[in-house]
Amino acid sequence: MWAKHAQGTVIRQAQGAWPQGTYEEHHARDGFAGDCSQLYRAHPTTEWTRVEGPIRPRGILTDDLPAEDDADERAQPTTLLECADMRLSISRRRRPAPYLFRNADGDTVILVQRGSGLLVCDYGTLEYGPLEYLVIPKGTNYRLIPHTTDNLSYVVETTAAVGVPDRGLLGHFLPFDIGVLDVPRLDALRAHGSGLDGPEWEIVVKRGERLSSIFHPFDPLDVEGWQGSVTPYRLRLRDIRPVTSERMDVPPITHATFAAEGVWFCTMAPRIWQNDPEAAHVQPYHRNVDYDEIIINLGSPEGDGVPGRPIGLMTVTPGGMNHGPGAAMLRHPMERMPFYLLNIDTRQALRPTSAFEQAEIPDFYERQRFSGPGR
């Protein structure tokens, strides 16, 4: 327990109903998990005149954004953002690659926005579909076989191992029971193998950001059995049970799905919004000084968009920048969050690639203050 000091106009319980004529801002460390102070200001901190320099919030629409692997079956996903700990790319693969792929630089997390297909790997086969995660450990030989042609996935490669964060006082079953994770089935793999034809079978290996190829005179997915704890797995977003509170905004860390060193994956699932008369009915303003924040709107469980938050909208807010609810959210607070959001936080500063910059929404950082809900 840390010492708490107070001066001026405050409330006893942070994130309650703000004092009349004030706007609560969080000045927090380690995301929302470390020490924190609340500042009660006379104006929303997002009411800036302009922002100069790379700290400005940025946004792109990924729904129709081109990806190299759409037309070129040998191509890799198209990278949009990167730092020392991770790389975020998009994939539109409509035909399976003519090779197996092995990422020797780190783990891979794939979140499917649209499309369905089959993951074929050393451990067996695993079907995937919309609004599902695939987590693939470093060094796994695998191949994605799409069953559809209109596909969009977000591909995150981390340098450190991806795992499920410690749930602490939440227990074993929130935000999801480990038992809902599905692993590949070996029986189908033993019957059909990789699906590639000889006389040579190719494995493309990425190491040190460079690609090499290993060729075999046999199908490399020739596994007859396996046991252990290293395996790809699938998590359906519908199996996530979000933590909710009627009386205050629940911080993003409670929605943490996966984590790697320097990277957090948080899945904001549809849920009841805070609605108690003594609650603040919007998120607090904040300056998340230790993390850059990526938010991707994944749409509703029915696949619908939300006014002001089109499916595929990706926003990036660098650490230290003011952010919080827009003017529209203040005027019309939500009663229920009706859509899924993917929130990725990185300790290292993100670098946009040329593919991101070419698709960037002009003057996005000026307009987002007046848009709909945002974290």
UniProtKB/TrEMBL annotation:
The keyword Zinc does not apply. Signal peptide: none annotated. Pfam families: HgmA_N. It comes from the Bacteria. Residues 100-235 form the Homogentisate 1,2-dioxygenase N-terminal domain. InterPro entries: HgmA_N, Homogentis_dOase, RmlC_Cupin_sf. Residues 51-73 are annotated as: Disordered. Keywords: Dioxygenase, Iron, Metal-binding, Oxidoreductase. PANTHER family: HOMOGENTISATE 1,2-DIOXYGENASE. This is Homogentisate 1,2-dioxygenase.
